[in-house]
Amino acid sequence: VAGCAAFGPYHANTPDHPFQSVRGPNGSGRYKLAFIEFGDQGSNLDNSQIKAALDAIHQAERPFLLVYIHGWQNNANSRDVCRFEHFLDTISSFSQATGQKLNVIGVYIAWRGRDLVFPGLNLLTFYSRKSVAAGIASQVSCLATLDELALAARDPSKKERRCILIGHSFGGLLLGNTISHSILDASG
Known about the structure:
Elements: E1 22-23, E2 31-37, H1 47-59, E3 63-69, H2 79-93, H3 95-99, E4 103-110, H4 126-138, H5 140-153, E5 162-167, H6 170-187
Parallel strand pairs: 2-4, 3-4, 3-5
Antiparallel strand pairs: 1-2
């Protein structure tokens, strides 16, 4: 009911606005931020978000990709987005980034880490949200998305290429569980 968070994507692309899920600071153009949102079952809520994020990476001559997966009590519309944007703005203003003319691109991987918005009751969601994070990690779509993003950023035709994966709280659990399969496959 009234205390539940929305199920659909917060940054949905439309035919009229196919890049609604990608944004940057007004005027400066120092970085871009793309959203990719997942549902509780591990599927992408809007497949065009992946395409829009990949387009931003492909257009960059010197991509410096920072992929961030948020944790418990956050989603694609929480204050955590502002914190990540501030982080991107800070990184993009460093002399190393400006001197090397790096294209800082942040991808905010979102899931419903906050499904109840009613104060007090939201604290009871710890175990259910932990289970959702583990469930998303077990689905192939999350691994495929991370793989596509990393491959695009590390394209050999790029002049510079970097990709950093960051997970916070249950986002770290989600990230660790997702990429552990790849690490085990690579070492085997």
